[in-house]
Structures
1.
Amino acid sequence: MKRLVLACALVGVVVVAASHYSLSQARGPQPAAGAQAPASGMSFFITSVGKGDGANLGGLAGADAHCQQLATAAGSTGKTWRAYLSTSASGNQAAVNARDRIGRGPWQNSKGVVVAQNVDDLHSDNNKLSKENSLTEKGAVVNGRVDTPNTHDILTGSGLDGRLPMGATNCNNWTGNGAGAANVGHHDRGGGGQNPNSWNAAHATNGCSQPNLVATGGAGLFYCFAQ
């Protein structure tokens, strides 16, 4: 009798285990506990990390590829990403305005908050860019002035209107990591500089190397928008 009961119990365990296995197979891989899936509609973020070589981003192509790589790693697919960066005319290449390369909008962060409806809205006082809304592709808040390291400077090379300014500063079109300077904005809308509350044109950096950017108040981060 005991053997019969034991055999029935073993059969029950096998059936339950098989059913759980089949269910897990049907559902596919599940996110780890506490992990948050990125918003499928995410179309704007600040890079969680820079390229690591100061303002040398590999030009616009390298910066765009970095945006694309980070977005894909965060689970956002099916979009074409562009870095919000302006460049100067060089050789046969015309100058590029950051505002002209990011699409029409609207744009929203990884939490689903719409930060701007269109290009004009983005460059107006009506945009919703702030420390709380200007998130990374992972949905994290970027460190600000009160944090260590201080990373509230975001590379743009742009003026307040998103266009290449007079006396453009973009570290040799985002290929330099030595002498020079780059225009940056303050993602937290505060600090010093000519336009301390500007998200895209607060001041210029004191050089183009990684140490220069860190000393000025940044880490080589930049804005990415989906076209």
2.
Amino acid sequence: MYRPAAPRSVRVIALLWLAAAIAAGGCSQRRPAGPAGTGNELPDQEINDFALTETDAGQPLWKLNARYAAEYSSRNLITARTVRVDFFDEKGARSSVLTAREGEINGRTRDMVARGHVVLETTEGTRLSTEELRFLNREQKILVPESQLVRVQRAHDVLTGYGFESDPNLSHYEFKRRVQATVRSRVPIEEEGR
């Protein structure tokens, strides 16, 4: 029995057209490589092991280290991943450390936003944790939006709430709403027997 060759060639041509359509569709949706959230804009500079220090009259105020950073000059923006910020007191001693998955730094004002598993821990052991935090450089102030849950632990005592304002040393802080406290003060051993 005789079979025409046309159906096989038609299938090959159809497969080639399909492959070309898939390749063309994939190319049109490809985005330039860059940090998440930057859209199609490419960074002016990309830096591994990035460091940025803010000083006042030669005295360090804070030092930021990031595993990766990208600078966008047109927006005065630096985006960073795997962020650590060391804050210093007026004597130049480290007073607290902030860590986060990612951050953004305003290149002009040096204000920062930290996002993702944000932890701020003082040298005395007070620990703040949240998912998003702003640092206002000029005011030396930490702000957490009222939409974000904040947890502050000092020794065995825990405060939680929404919205937060403080200095980087967590010396003076204020929750904005829905504050709850768990106080587990330890009783000294000599008082337990009385």
3.
Amino acid sequence: MRRVREGLGCAKAWRYAITASALAVLEACASGAPVPLARRVDVDQMYGAWHIIATIPNPVERGMVAPVDVYSKRPDGDIREDFYVRFGGFNAPEKHFVVHDWVRPRSDGAHWRVQLLWPFNFPFLILYVDPQYRYVVFGEQNRSMGWIYARSARLSDQDYEAALGHLAAAGYDPVRFRKIVQAPDEIGKPGYWSDGVR
């Protein structure tokens, strides 16, 4: 992605440079059993808006509230990712990042590459996608970072537990995951990542 952002000062781009660098290092140092990928992901059904429901807490994503990724097809056939997020609370200004993604050939649509800052790109692996494409589980080889996405900002308890089960089956420790705050009344609730959120 040569253009990292729209309407955002360069000082904020450091989060994404750090993420790209960290995940590139994780990929290079990956060890252990390969993380299992989802089978036959229909990329066309991945287009549209996804709410980030849960993650493993990390310094780069600290303070996120109500993050949303919107995927669409680029003119060159790759994937455009429009990422919308507020950091620190719901009164903070919304940030908008434009990211270049693509799918690695012969991966059944499950091995995505994400370019936050050119020339850095890192793997964004689909570990499981719900048959109705209501939620999806992303991860990376070292299992240090992982995400649960959903079409709506609130995922049912049953679906959330199912998503954690798929992460556990992929070798993750589900206890490490925390829900991301989607509304002010969730700040400070057990199971939510409220660090850095006011």
4.
Amino acid sequence: MTSLQWMSKLLLILCAMAALAVAYDTDVVHAVAGGVTKVDKEAKTIAVKTADGTEHVFHYTEKTTVRGAHATAKDVKTGALDTYFAGKEGTHVIVRYTEKGADKTASSVDDFGKDAFKVSHGTVTKVDKTAHTVAIKGEDGAETTYDWGKDATVDTEHGVVKGSQYVAKEGDKVVVHYTEDAGKKVVHFFKGM
């Protein structure tokens, strides 16, 4: 074996080891959208009920951030989840979380207020990357076009990505959480089914 071949194999092994180290060291962040049903200050948990009726319980820490729907970076609060959501049951949120076994830990919670989200299920029929829109044929057969919100969250099987970085594919079955603004339906949370 030549020294060049030996160096190539060594480099390949080192790259594989680095990739494994990153895979085991990095927590994948996922997201859920729904309504807050309970905040337990003693257990440090927040319960969120999704549109399909499933209730998810997330632990929170002093590092969990909370922000309102129209907050700027300076409006983000850290470690104030229990006081922020006191008395706000029913508030629509997007929770970003990591999971270790059955335990889910919230890294951030975005508050969109009560009665904020509307939910639609359907199949992607058209994607317009230039206009930043996606058309979805709903369960009722009607096709609706949605604009990607500037802070849209997409939960994929590989974790959360920004809406601006995600490319929906025609034929994908999805659930969309959106608001209406100036006659447009704006996506805030998007997830494959």
